[in-house]
Amino acid sequence: MASVASTYARAFADVVLSAHLDADRSLAELRILASLLAESSDLRRVWENPAIPADQKRSLLDVIAQRDEISKQVRNLVAVLIDHRRIHFLDPIIRQLEKELDARLGFAEAQITSARALGDAEKREFELQVGELTGKKVRAQYAEDKSLLGGAVLRLGSTIYDGSVKGQLERIKEAIGGN
Predict the structure, then answer these.
(1) Parts of the chain with a pLDDT under 70
(2) Which of the listed CATH numbers 1.10.520, 3.40.190, 1.20.1440, 3.90.550 matches domain 2-103?
(3) Which element (helix H / strand E) includes 153?
(4) Model pTM greater than 0.90?
């Protein structure tokens, strides 16, 4: 499954970049279609049913695309998925496409968990520091975890930077020989 999603995501990332599309808008349009598919078992049955002719499926897609102002390129990707009976891969393709576009556009995805809610100025400062660390533009997601006691934990891909009070206490405990 990963290779299917990866193949379509790489190909569509090529389309987005070569056609100078707004990457965020393309992703949003794909999420709209994925949401419709998830919420409507009837739509899912139609698009996944091999007995229904492809042109009828695409006609339904065209109605949805026009109603929701879906770009031609996003519509075409979904049509290809329908035609090749791979519409059930839409969610993994979207997740892979997000990663592919972030990599190509020079974004780093960061998850920042802090002991308390951060203000806008603190978030900007965090993103600036992470940007300096990675040399990339930062897309950060924030969460709150009171068990950290203070400070924050930064996750960049598989790397974790623990600057929390809880993490410091655990390191001190390990250093003095406790478990």
Answers:
(1) 1-2, 178-179
(2) 1.10.520
(3) strand 152-156
(4) no
